[in-house]
């Protein structure tokens, strides 16, 4: 993959293999399914990388917590990231099999300073910042789905034309 292609994809690929862990005993299976033929999109690579890292960090935290708190000897922490060409947009899905997101808090997840983590472990800004980057700066959407005992999944949809429209307006 060329440097230019990595930039168009938001610089995610090279960073996945270098994820630092705060818990040396924690291992997670990271599955990647990147669409091969996604056409270039206008986006800010650093911003989209930040969104992805926030989603990965939350998924790693949730899987680690489930492993530590659960009584499931066969539990294998897993996080997957996939991309898909949606014609007028690019889709990014990030499901994990960690602790799930309770239905009663789904509406609060993207609010500033809302966190499910204990004091000192989270600021409550990661998802709020990610939401603003995706929706305000890139004209996209970010949603969450969760099934009790199964998974939590974030889906990001980035419109292709939004960046081009901003660039055209600036000229």
Euclidean distance between termini CA atoms:
31 Å
The average pLDDT score comes to: 82
Oligomeric form:
single chain
Q: Which CATH-level-2 architecture?
A: 2-Layer Sandwich
Number of domains: 1
CATH C-level class is Alpha Beta
Helix content: 25-40%
The biggest sheet, with number of strands, parallel, antiparallel or mixed sense and barrel status, is: 5 strands, mixed
Please compute the radius of gyration using only Cα atoms.
16 Å
What is the number of beta strands?
Answer: 5
Q: Would you tell me which CATH topology applies?
A: Heat Shock Protein 90
Number of helices: 5
CATH fourth-tier homologous superfamily = Histidine kinase-like ATPase, C-terminal domain
The helix/strand series, from N terminus to C terminus, equals HHEHEEHEEH
- Shape, principal axes of CA atoms: globular
Structural class: alpha+beta
- The fraction of residues assigned to DSSP E strands is 15-25%
- Uncertain residue segments: 6-19, 163-171
Biggest β-sheet: strands ordered side by side in the sheet: 1-2-3-5-4
